Sequence to fold (333 residues):
Amino acid sequence: MAFGFNQESVNGGLAKLVRQFCTQQQLTIPADCLNYHDAQRIPFTVWQQILHQVNEQYQQPALGLHIARRIEPAHIGIMGYLGLSCQNLGEALQRFERYHRLAYDCNDLQISITDNMVEISWGISAGKPGQLVDETAIALFRNIAEQLIQPTRLALSHVDFVNSPPNQTRIYEQYFGCAVTFNAVRTRIAFPITLLTAPVNRADQTLKQLLENQAAALLYELPEHDDFDQQLQRYMTQAVQQGNICIDEIAQHLGLSARGLQRQLVKRNYSFQQRLAQVRETLAKQYLLDSKLSLIDIALLLAYSEQSAFQRAFKQWTGQTPHQWRTSQQIHG
Fold:
């Protein structure tokens, strides 16, 4: 089991979307992007890596917004076709709330209506995927929803991100056509309740029940999220990033004693040190995707006292040195 979105995944059709984008932009297609077809699930950590590899080549801000411009319902599989079978946006949102994990399975989703506004938000129970991943997801959702109700425009009232603001925030306000906030509690979009009655363009309801039955079967096959594991990975990540890895403090965050935490880990068939190694491995791969970080920088960020200790550990995890892994990811385009 890998740390960080270890059970989460996205629809394999998104790999096709990225391949099409790279081809159009004359970019190198990430190797991982060639390994998945529409009927497969892309592990979330792989999806993160794919986006970061493209971003290193693209060298322009707000990559996720540009990728999302090319989205079509087919790219999110049965969820897209189910949306096309609905009468209006409100009905499509009901299906989305029920089956959203089939398209994009990451953090918890909430849909609410407040002050004549529909709010759709995502939490951070599984962690923060980062601005690039989040902006891609939000832009994909907005563009798919708008395609469903063409020629009606999905006029957003506001967009919130949980991440720190990027250098050029004006791009996001222009793209979404509304105020965009960063460092928010939840990732969120909002639009007027009146849009719920917007009819789906060329709605075809003949296959609705068949599609819903198939969606229910596919949803049943997805793994259930382990809340304990998500909390553990969050506190372990914080400990590594703060350079203070202490089992007693991590256990205290979870409301357990150190011995109680170890018992919970045994039930899940791994030890504290194994889990810590998984945390560091995933963080290491994220850091290695940033070509501006040296190996010394990364070793310090992972709370290693020496670069050599980090290199030995990484070779043990992956069978490659950090330099070999970084090169294999084609992050230099």
